[in-house]
Design brief:
Layout lengths: L2 E6 L3 E8 L2 E9 L6 H10 L7 E6 L7 E3 L6 E3 H7 L4 E6 H8 L8 E3 L11 E6 L3 E9 L2 E6 L12 H14 L4 H4 L2 H12 L6 H9 L3 H25 L5 E3 L8 H5 L3 H6 L5 H5 L3 E4 L4 H13 L1
Parallel strand pairs: 1-4, 4-7, 9-12, 12-13
Antiparallel strand pairs: 1-2, 2-3, 5-6, 8-13, 9-10, 10-11
Length: 307
């Protein structure tokens, strides 16, 4: 069955069509150009030669009932109202990293960059975490001969410190924010806050910091390294919490942009720095996802399961 796929993040929305085992008609939109989900998807659908009657959406939001309230952009929608407005027979809404988790078993070597050693345990749980506009987390658990993705809001766990310097950063962030979740410092906005806390001055937007990082600016790169270290802490906590002996995958929009810096960073050393559990984590592989639009691939896999 032909289906609309849409990965709706805090900054961009990526749309595609799943049909006959392929992903086609891919388009990317800047969310700031649109007033909400419905007009954006209607624009995409109106330009297709054939309009699908089924849609699968991945959204950066906690999903509990019919009402979807996105966290990092001021967009809300009703699942029922959206389905009716777009003339769909079926609408499935997944958390964005729940959708990404469905892609993990089909990613090939060219779509992954292994960071450090480690070997996945066959048939074991996998997990994915990634900073972008926010910090997403998803889990993929074995279910018989198949897999079941589990939605998570693990990016909002309280951020722990591994040393006094990190404790001071978190304390200063908490003074401003009240609660310092992992997402507050491990995300695009978090990179901006980290840079200001570390180096003073005005809070630079993540786009500006990206330019400085690519230009080799030492201060900006040290801020990025601090983000990578915090990510290593949270990723290893995730591995231990869900028993992700099948591996931890790093997604999101930030880390793939700096793959060489990430590979050379302290991420992996921090990931395995768990005292008595260091050997267990040394055997747990970590991969950076470098595939193009992997959440669409996950939605495509989910669509195929329902055909």
């Amino acid at each position: 069955m032909t289906a609309l796929l849409a990965d709706i993040g805090g900054t961009h929305t990526r749309c595609a069509i799943s049909a006959a085992g392929r992903i086609t008609q891919q388009r990317e939109y800047l969310n700031a150009d649109w007033s909400g989900v419905e007009p954006l998807l209607r624009h995409y659908l109106d330009r297709l030669p054939e309009r699908p009657r089924r849609a699968l959406l991945a959204v950066a939001a906690p999903l509990q009932d019919d009402h979807v309230d996105m966290i990092n952009i001021d967009w809300q929608f009703s699942r029922r109202a959206l389905r009716e407005a777009l003339g769909l027979q079926a609408l499935d809404v997944l958390n964005d990293f729940e959708a990404l988790a469905y892609a993990l078993p089909v990613l090939n070597d060219g779509q992954l960059l292994q960071i450090g050693p480690g070997h996945p345990r066959a048939g074991a749980t996998k997990a994915v975490i990634g900073p972008g506009t926010g910090l997403g987390v998803g889990v993929l658990a074995p279910l018989g001969d198949d897999w079941q993705a589990l939605a998570s809001e693990g990016g909002h766990v309280t951020l722990p410190a591994c040393n006094d310097a990190e404790a001071d950063l978190i304390r200063r962030a908490r003074d401003e924010l009240g609660h310092c979740s992992a997402e507050r410092l491990v995300s695009g906005p978090g990179l901006s806050l980290l840079h200001q806390l570390l180096h003073g001055g005005p809070r630079l937007p993540a786009e500006r910091l990206g330019d400085l990082i690519e230009a080799g600016d030492a201060a900006a790169r040290s801020s990025l390294e601090t983000l990578f270290l915090f990510l290593g802490t949270v990723a290893s906590d995730l591995a231990l919490t869900v028993g992700a002996w099948g591996g931890i995958y790093i997604g999101g929009g930030i880390v793939p942009r700096y793959r060489e810096l990430f590979a050379a960073s302290g991420f992996r050393a921090r990931f395995i720095d768990k005292g008595r559990y260091q050997r267990l984590l040394e055997n747990t592989p970590t991969w950076l996802i470098v595939a193009h639009n992997p959440a669409l691939l996950g939605l495509h896999q989910r669509a195929a399961r329902r055909d």
